[in-house]
Amino acid sequence: MKIILSGGGTGGHIYPALALIRRLQVMNPTVEVLYVGTEKGLEKKIVEKAGIPFKSVEIQGFKRSLSLSNFKTIQLFFKSVADSKKIVKEFKPDIVIGTGGYVCGPVVYAAAKLNVPTIIHEQNSVAGVTNKFLARFVSKIAICFEEARAEFPKFQDKVVLTGNPRAQEVANIEKSPVLTEYGLATQTPTLLIFGGSRGARKINEAFLEALPELATKDYQVLFATGEVHYEKINQEVEKLNLQNKNVAVVPYIYNMPEVFANVSVVMGRSGATTLAELTALGLPSILIPSPYVTNDHQTKNAESLSHHNAARLIPDNELNGAQFIQAADELMLNEPLREEMAKEAKKLGVVDASDRLIRLINKLINN
């Protein structure tokens, strides 16, 4: 089997693709994979580090306002389609899969025009512009949230709920003493707080405001500030000279899925990959959607959990220290509520997401 995958721009488009590749390699060691991205994108560094063959095309996204650069974008699109056709003809894939971001536009479009079976994988509950464009050309549309089905009203016969491959990758992670690495106890209920890899200003501010009270709680807190904010926040924490050792502050958590498996509640943003991991593990959450994403898709992602009582949702502009403490206490001081929310989260998890996607791949290839 030979497969081309394409996706980029953010980790949310890249990591599901890598999770799928790893599962494919387990199930079929002879599978040949080629990843197509951009030279400047995050995907080049991540994919090459993973040891996966990589080729690039030059493409950029459209500006939402009227801009001369959009004319260049159109030129680049046609050139990248031609380049993608060349890549597809040389590699001769059995199927081509796009996982989002503007780079997969020309790659998947080119494959469809060459009559190669194609899939787009939409991680969010609100479809991206590229996936909406590609919907009419592809063989199948794989979604992770049932709510995303409505994003493709004219192509319902193509839509298949597969879930996010990252969910299957983390579903069976077992408890470990990982919290001791952060100076925390393994048996104490733990609240994990983070605002994404770069951190989130509003979450950081609310944490500092709530910290004096957090430090008095019977539960413990692990807070990842984001690399760029760590020094400033750590200085503020040290000024308080907290006696209670129930709060640990770190710049970044590299083994996040393992930490997820050992905490009681997660508070943070509602990116698609994070929610796939939380639901796969059956973990209650307090979600504060980023207001800085396209089409406010993180709010829609969060609502897909909060409407099922699997999460609490706090709008970013309403977050403050008092709200922070109230939400944390509601879950951390009420174990029966946590258990009920954990059950609801687990129901939403798709723990065989990669296998579902692979079955769809095989079906398209065999047809």
TrEMBL record:
EC number(s) per entry: 2.4.1.227
Pfam families reported in the protein's UniProt record: Glyco_tran_28_C, Glyco_transf_28
Record-level GO BP terms: carbohydrate metabolic process; cell division; cell wall organization; peptidoglycan biosynthetic process; regulation of cell shape
Gene Ontology cellular-component terms listed: plasma membrane
Subcellular location: Cell membrane
Enzyme class: transferase
GO molecular function, one term: undecaprenyldiphospho-muramoylpentapeptide beta-N-acetylglucosaminyltransferase activity
Catalytic reaction equation(s): Mur2Ac(oyl-L-Ala-gamma-D-Glu-L-Lys-D-Ala-D-Ala)-di-trans,octa-cis-undecaprenyl diphosphate + UDP-N-acetyl-alpha-D-glucosamine = beta-D-GlcNAc-(1->4)-Mur2Ac(oyl-L-Ala-gamma-D-Glu-L-Lys-D-Ala-D-Ala)-di-trans,octa-cis-undecaprenyl diphosphate + UDP + H(+)
Cell cycle found in the keyword field: yes
Record keywords: Cell cycle, Cell division, Cell membrane, Cell shape, Cell wall biogenesis/degradation, Glycosyltransferase, Membrane, Peptidoglycan synthesis, Transferase
Principal location listed in the UniProt entry: membrane
Membrane topology: Peripheral membrane protein
Limits of the Glycosyl transferase family 28 C-terminal domain: 190-357
Binding-site positions, UDP-N-acetyl-alpha-D-glucosamine: 10-12, 124, 197, 253, 298
Record SUPFAM superfamilies: UDP-Glycosyltransferase/glycogen phosphorylase
Xref: Gene3D superfamilies: Glycogen Phosphorylase B
Ranges of residues in domain Glycosyltransferase family 28 N-terminal: 3-143
Pathway(s) where this gene product acts: Cell wall biogenesis; peptidoglycan biosynthesis
Coiled coil: none
Function per UniProt: Cell wall formation. Catalyzes the transfer of a GlcNAc subunit on undecaprenyl-pyrophosphoryl-MurNAc-pentapeptide (lipid intermediate I) to form undecaprenyl-pyrophosphoryl-MurNAc-(pentapeptide)GlcNAc (lipid intermediate II).
Family designation: Belongs to the glycosyltransferase 28 family. MurG subfamily.
Protein name: UDP-N-acetylglucosamine--N-acetylmuramyl-(pentapeptide) pyrophosphoryl-undecaprenol N-acetylglucosamine transferase
Protein source organism: Carnobacterium divergens (Lactobacillus divergens)
UniProt gene name: murG
